[in-house]
Design a protein that fits this description.
Blueprint: H1 3-22, H2 25-45, E1 53-59, H3 64-75, E2 79-84, H4 88-96, E3 102-106, H5 110-115, E4 123-126, H6 131-154, H7 175-206, H8 209-214, H9 219-248, H10 257-281, H11 285-302, H12 317-320, H13 324-338, H14 342-366
């Protein structure tokens, strides 16, 4: 059989899959609209920059110094004083009731101790049931206390040592700049795997798979033919989500977007290959969806999308390096935020290419021309 004949068969399968996809508005909606909706919802909902923490205050001192300290808390924009109380019991009760996440008590002898040159203690109660809020409240309250101490003790004298930290690549520490490049990769993985996982399963449920097996099309030609339309659709989805990231969330792209597309190619192939593996094994679409979620969800927690890989237990770090999302998220953040180029990201591309070849080889072995 000539290569031309094989190519003609592959194109015929791809054309059939394209037509079926275009005639199925549900598939197009799922592939193009759902990622956009999820990006909008999650992009606006996820924000690690905690601000305006509900705070209740008991100022037992009622002096100029105590009011100056409270103004320092309020001016930080991290604390919103929602209520002033006048008993110790009320501080704890407001936190238990969920009406406040922080309670501040300034003792009666606060100003007196300051004037005597003694250490004046301020009680800060923090709701630890929300870890991000608690961490921010502790850090900011300690910083405010240190700042007030320096004002009182040093007054007009300069500090002997001054630290001037500077944040690179994301100077405003915007959550969107950190999360959305990873979210874009996650949506690409999930949609690509789900779409191809349904490719063969749909044929099985509709009873048309037997007709395909009666044709002279080889398993490899059938697999590639079914893969091509979803490869194109995945790239259209990636481009639309990237455009939304840039326009709606104002995330700057510091590096070469064409380089990101090049690195994204083996990643998408690996994602589609995982979907083909699932479609070759699953009997129903419900079973396929369960297998897709089982393959995608570990990547959310182990890829570095939310938690740094370095902070994971040592036994899980090698597992994280076996997940394609790990290398693609690192490449996406490298190109979009750090302006990284090929010299910094060639290893990501090489590893993703090796993963794509491995997954597609396994899919070809499983994708036999028979009804399983």
């Amino acid at each position: 059989m000539s290569a031309t004949t094989s190519l003609r068969r592959t194109v015929s399968v791809a054309r059939k899959e394209f037509l079926h996809m275009l005639r199925d508005p549900g598939t197009l909606f799922f592939a193009l609209a759902i990622p956009v909706l999820e990006l909008l919802m999650l992009g606006y909902a996820i924000d690690t920059n905690v601000r305006h923490i509900r705070t209740v205050v008991y100022d037992a001192c009622q002096t100029q110094e105590s009011r100056a300290l409270l103004r320092a808390f309020e001016n930080s924009d991290d604390f919103d004083v929602v209520e002033m109380v006048y008993r110790d019991e009320d501080l704890n009760q407001r936190i238990v009731a969920g009406k406040a996440h922080v309670a501040i008590k300034i003792p009666e002898d606060y100003s007196r101790k300051l004037e005597a040159g003694q250490t004046a203690q301020v009680l800060v109660l923090v709701d630890g049931s929300e870890s991000n809020v608690a961490s921010t409240a502790l850090n900011v309250s300690n910083a405010i206390a240190l700042q007030e101490s320096l004002k009182l003790t040093l007054q007009s004298k300069p500090l002997p040592v001054e630290s001037r930290p500077r944040v690179l690549f994301n100077p405003d520490t915007r959550s969107a700049n950190f999360f959305i490049p990873g979210l874009m990769v996650f949506l690409c993985q999930m949609m690509g795997t789900m779409l191809t996982a349904n490719a063969l399963v749909r044929e099985k449920e509709n009873g048309t798979l037997e007709q395909l097996f009666m044709t002279p099309v080889r398993p490899s030609e059938l697999m590639i033919g079914k893969l091509i339309p979803y490869l194109v659709l995945s790239f259209v989805q990636f481009l639309s989500v990237a455009a939304l990231m840039r326009v709606a969330f104002q995330v700057p792209i510091e590096g070469s977007f064409s380089l990101l597309l090049v690195i994204n190619f083996p990643f998408v192939v690996a994602a589609l290959g995982i979907g083909l593996l699932i479609s070759a094994r699953a009997k129903t679409r419900d079973e396929a969806m369960q297998m897709v979620m089982g393959s995608v969800l570990p990547g959310v927690f182990l890829s570095g999308y939310i938690f740094p890989i370095e902070s994971m237990p040592l036994v899980l770090q090698p597992v994280a390096n076996l997940i394609p999302m790990t290398w693609m998220i690192d490449a996406a953040r490298g190109v979009i935020l750090r302006g990284a180029g090929w010299r910094e990201l060639w290893m990501n591309a090489a590893i993703l290419s090796a993963m794509a070849v491995t997954v597609m080889t396994l899919a070809a072995l499983k994708f036999k021309k028979r009804v399983s």
